[in-house]
Each structure stands twice: as C-alpha cells, then as structure tokens.
Amino acid sequence: MKDHIDFEIRRQIYSLISKNPGLHLSKIAKILNARISHVEYHLLYLKKHQLIQEEKGTGYVRYYCKGEVSTRNKKILTLLQLEIPLIIVLFLIKNENSRHVDILKSLDISRSTLSYHLKKLVKHGYLKVKEADGERRYSVNNKEGIIRLLIQYKPYNLIDNFRDLWSDITLE
Amino acid sequence: MEIETIVIYAGITIFSFGLFIISILGLRKHRTIKILFVTLAFLMFFIRGVILSLSLINNLSKEIVSSSFFWLLDLIILALLLIATIKR
Amino acid sequence: MQMESIVIYGCMTIFALGLLVVSIFSYRKYRNNKLIFVSLSFLMFFIKGVLLSIGMFNQQIQDLMQSPYNGIFDFVILTLLLLATLKR
Questions:
Q1: CB 3.0-4.6 Å disulfide test: which of A29, A47, A48, C23 passes with A39?
Q2: Which ipTM was obtained for this model?
C-alpha cells in the first residue's frame, strides 16, 4: 500500500512539473502541501529514473520533465490501470525475484487472485519468470521502461479529470 | 425597475465577465481543450447577463428573456461544462 | 406546455445532477475546499432545473422562475464559482 501511495505522489509531482516547468523544491512542496524532505526524496527518485532533470540557476535548483509517452506505450499500460496488477508490479519493482509466497505475504489479496493476476501479467509480458531451486521467481520485465511509463502516464479518471480542470482555473 | 433586480443583473454580468477573464488566463497558461469549453461556458454566462441587464431598458431583450431560448443558454452552459469534465 | 421547454428543462436537470455527482465524488476523494464551492454551484443549478421542471405543472413556481428574482440563482452560482477560482 505504501508503494502505491509513493507512486501516486511521484505521479502528482511529475504532473505538476509537467504543467509548470521550472518549479523549485520548496514551491513544489508548498503547492502539494507536503514536507520538503518528502518531496526531495521523490524528486531524487524521479531524477534517478531519468523522468526529470534539474537546472541550477538564480539561487534555486529548478526541475523540468524529460520525454513524453507515445500512444503505443500508453496501450502497454492497459492492464496496469487495474489496482491489483498495479500493486503487484509496484511490489516487484522493489523486490525482484520474489516468490509467489513472498508476494502473498506482503499484499492483502487472496492466493487465487494473486495467481490469476500473475499469470495474466506474465502472459502480457509485464513480468518474467525464473525457475530456481524448484521455485518460480517473478521480476518485472523492462523495469526502467515500466517505471517511466507509470509515472509519466496517468490513465483517464473522471473524478481526477474534474479536480484537475478546476485546479487549472485559478486566479493567481 | 427595482433596485435589487438591477443589483442582481449587474452582479451576474460583472461576475460572469470576471470568470470569463480568469478562465482565459487559465487557457493561456495550460492550453487545454477542456479549459476552452469552460471559457465558452463563462462567455455564455456573460452573454446571458448582458441580455438580462438590457431587458431592464429594452423591450426586445425582455421578449428574449421570457422565451425558451433564454433557458437554452443555461442548457448550453451546462453542456459545455459537462463536456469539459468528460473530455480526456 | 411546449415540447422544447420540457426537453430543455429536463436536460438541464440531468446535466446539473451529473455534474453535481462528479463534483461530490471529486471532493470526497481530494477534500479540496475549492471543490466544495464548485459542488454547491452545481447543486444550485440542479435546484434551478428542478424548479423549472416543476414550474411546468405549478403556476406559482412558474411565476417565480419567470420573475426577475430567478436571477438570484445565477448570482449565487456565479459567486460560488468565483470563490472557487479564488481558492487554491
């Protein structure tokens, strides 16, 4: 669950920088109403995964987005628009080569649900499976690529759409 | 012509014009089709306000206000806001 | 009772209800004060639509909605939307 929250915050930060290129750390923290140390931690993550770049100048470090999501890549994210496949992938991004039982221990889902979604994710190429010591171990396929896509692309959601619309119409 | 009617109609015209300007600023900044629809909705509100204000002094406007065309403006405003909400 | 009035008032009520529902869900998710004002404005739109629809069957309400005092609805809606744009 924490992975999901971190991922959402990173998406929010990325989206904010994408709409307002050149924001600095304290401004981002102020707009998102978050602690500076928290935002800094997430910005480091985004920088590490080549999603944003920083430019130093006039006493501030300013952040800009890198790259855009292509239409072809948006289609790849179709399965990850569902909550359970998404939390499985987020878990495996942090914990490569995990067994079925490791994933089950950490996530609040049933054994059969996990098996069903793991099969689907492997079938569609999101995950790869390695057999070791008679056990199947799962990892994310093209981890960096999936991270970039997940952060850059936000699937359509009417409620979020509405909030974003009225957030953009502000007198400031 | 009652004073409260004048105040209400003037308020409608001024507020809708203010919202129209604010939405144009939002449109210039973000350049999304969604905000364009909202801008058009506030423009319709402004037109509505102007017609209402003119109806205080002009018979033609009074006829427009009492016709169903006038309520069509409300429907158009809501439709524009709905499209802005649904649009990706 | 004209056909176009029925269609206009009906659609107004439905569109306003749709926007009201979306705004309430959005507020519940994000707890953003701006969205309270937007929700209230769509609530006013919905009430206006309901009164216009009822006015087709009730002369008193129809007279009220035809009077200049129905401008109060628009005034309140625009005030709420203006407050929403001023809030972060």
A1: A29
A2: 0.89
